[in-house]
């Protein structure tokens, strides 16, 4: 597994643990269809929460959340519709969050949680 993939997996683990501590229940991770992938799908009092996780080893090349482009947002929305259809949910309240995680060597992970990011 490439170093960036290991970092990404670790970031998703950190994100899932963080969300559970916030009272959310993780329903699915890395759900894929032909349209793309959803990192984390959770539920809580706000309904369904679709989380895009961006992990970096530092901010020298920008903040992790800056990688969530308009094109990426459109894809996440399409994949969310596919997830809803695959689970027999024609409609439900959906919140889209971004979790920006920085994991620098030898330091604890930092998490920026952007609720209702788009």
From TrEMBL:
**InterPro entries given in the database record:** Restrct_endonuc-II-like, tRNA_endonuc-like_dom_sf, UPF0102_YraN-like
Output the Pfam families linked to this UniProt entry: UPF0102 (PF02021)
UniProt-listed PANTHER family:
UPF0102 PROTEIN YRAN
**Which family does the similarity line name?**
Belongs to the UPF0102 family.
Protein name per UniProt? UPF0102 protein ACFQ34_29715
